[in-house]
Design brief:
This protein is mainly β. It is 7% helix and 46% strand.
Length: 175
């Protein structure tokens, strides 16, 4: 399995017991969806390795307590500490309406209520305090805040995102 075919689920953050159980910090708004998993891919070096789950359950807010079949001791748990967990993209719950996964809207056309077509979504930069759409219009890159107040509609069928950008933002890039 390749990382490109998977989504990041979370990270192993600590050991839970001397029998090898670990706690995983989930990167999701709905942690309860992942309570009854049978397996995950663990990132070890440059590889995604399948690990089978004996038991997993929520532990406090967004931590998942996992007992892996392959992890039977503290030293086994040490080997997977800080490792990322991944699941195939096919296992992502379907989103509807104006909710979307970042990877899902790459290649969508962005339509602004005042400026019309302002370009194609190339990527989403979430390494900043405010996540940004990186949109390419001809040879210019526009950075549009990813914000519920700006996004007015996500049209999956026509692969468009409708936005209402703050006054002057688009002109700043295209003038």
């Amino acid at each position: 399995m390749r990382k490109e075919d998977c989504f990041y689920l979370g990270n192993v953050v600590s050991k839970y017991s001397f029998k090898g159980e670990v706690l995983v910090k989930l990167d999701t708004d709905d942690p309860e969806i992942y309570e009854n998993m049978e397996s995950v891919f663990v990132s070890l070096g440059n590889n995604l390795v399948p690990f089978f789950i004996k038991k997993c359950r929520l532990h406090k807010s967004n931590l998942l307590r996992i007992d892996f079949e392959e992890v039977k001791s503290e030293s086994d748990a040490d080997r997977i500490m800080k490792s990322g967990l991944y699941l195939p993209l096919t296992q992502l719950p379907k989103l509807t309406g104006d909710k979307f996964y970042y990877h899902e809207v790459i290649g969508f056309t962005m339509l602004d209520k005042d400026h019309g077509n302002i370009g194609i979504v190339q990527s989403i930069n979430d390494s900043t305090a405010q996540a940004l759409f990186e949109v390419l219009k001809e040879d210019k890159q526009l950075l549009i805040p990813l914000n519920d107040d700006i996004i007015t509609k996500v049209d999956r069928e026509n692969k468009t995102i409708h936005v209402s950008t703050p006054e002057g933002l688009v002109a700043l890039y295209l003038s």
